[in-house]
Amino acid sequence: MKNDNIEDPVTEADLKVNEIIIKGIHEKYDDVNWEILSEENVKISSENCYTNNDWVWILDPLDGTKDFIQGTGNYAMHLALNFKQKPYIGFVLIPDKNQLWITDGKKTWCEKRDGTKYKPNLLNNKNLQEMTLVTSKNHGNEILRNLIQKINFRKVEIMGSIGCKIASIVRGESDIYICLSLPGKSSPKDWDFAAPETILKAAGGTITNLDNQELTYGQSCFEGMKAHKDNSGNVLLFRANDNIKRLNISANRMCMPDVPEDLFLEALKSLLNVDRGWVPSLEGYSLYIRPFLFATDPYVGIRPSVTYKFMIFTCPVGAYYSSSVPVKIETKYSRAVSGGTGFAKAAGNYAAALFPAKLGQDQGFTQLIWTDAKEHKYIEESGTMNIIFMVNGKLLSPMSGDTILDGITKRSILDIARSWGVEVEERRISVQEIISSFENGTMQEAFGAGTAATIAPINKIHFNGQDYILPTLDQESFSSKILKHLIDYKKGAIEDTFGWIESV
Q1: Is the pTM higher than 0.70?
Q2: Cβ neighbours of residue 156 under 8 Å, at least 6 residues apart?
Q3: CB atoms inside a 10 Å sphere around CB 173
Q4: Higher confidence at residue 54 or residue 240?
Q5: How does residue 10 score in pLDDT terms, banded at 50, 70 and 90?
Q6: In whole angstroms, what is the distance from residue 448 CA to residue 369 CA?
Q7: Is residue 201 within 8 Å of 104, Cβ to Cβ?
């Protein structure tokens, strides 16, 4: 029944079912111009299986061939009709269970041989530890095994065919299917997922695919956040609502839809409940949080995407900078221009900054101080941070605008400084004003402010071939005191006077 290639067990059943279905489609619809993408056709043909035809049948005559050979019953036949690369109708036949799952793109139902019909019964478990995971014995890898172990699902079911796995979700026997396949023959293909995906979506489920290639035009934005633990082990978020609002400001500038604020916060808290064991308790450490949104349309052409993915990942981090940093005032390259995307946390902004930053690092500078793109006369940002100066007892910082990110850490510092009675000015600051403050001895401190670094003291500023050295800081300096205050604030060690803390 099978060939000699154990890694690719094609049976006579595969080919026979493939032949019968394709013949039936052509006989039934002999006047319709559509294409058929079949797993078996791809294996025996050297032609490109993808066409420009709007209507494409996607067929897997026997998904779970190894299970068919071994007699486990976990095999299925998949058939889907796509219109302009979007699912239209789908069928998943599971012979051993006497089930034919059908969707017309709007609803999903199951039919048996005797004509009995019944509806999907998706579970509604929201806690991962209460869920039953269904996964594959052939598509796994070490990363997946580690993930399953860390999440600690209530139950893990192993089965072959993707159609069978998705059907188990639709029947209400399991909650979630995860596949983290490595590239290669073992990875699921279009014909594996086309029909099951259509069935699941119409039943009210969701498919999330991380393996997309649609990032060509840079329609992408992101945020940076941190979670800390208080002395009682509670996980705390700092100004999360401000990050949500800023993500949507960035999304609007990139012609992307808003992420609903309640969805953002619910997703974030759900993730942190899973990852709370990864939130460090050690001094100087935290859990970094990266929410991001990007386009996913499989389309080559410049237009806003119709589909997007919103994701959040986390990782434990220590101090971004281990000591004070030397910086260079950049007067050739520009980070942002008026009318552009400088105020947004958009992917392209940071990619464009990499090359001039590398040139500066090659000269011994940790970061750059960006200046305005028109004249290079005015201070804007410092690398990936906002910049703040202490001059003659007064805090000075460039005013946020369309070329400068509205930094949440910076805003927090200035608000706290005002509450301490420190004079604060947000305005346009010229390079010459900063150089003059060094020359007349009024420059006291300079530091970057951002989520990653929190506070990054600057020890040297280079401009026009000359180094300007900052005074050595002690524990009584403003940047030292504000850094300690912010850390204590984020960890719940002092009173939340501004209402910035939210417990998970």
Answers
A1: no
A2: 132, 133, 134, 135, 148
A3: 14
A4: 240
A5: low
A6: 10
A7: no
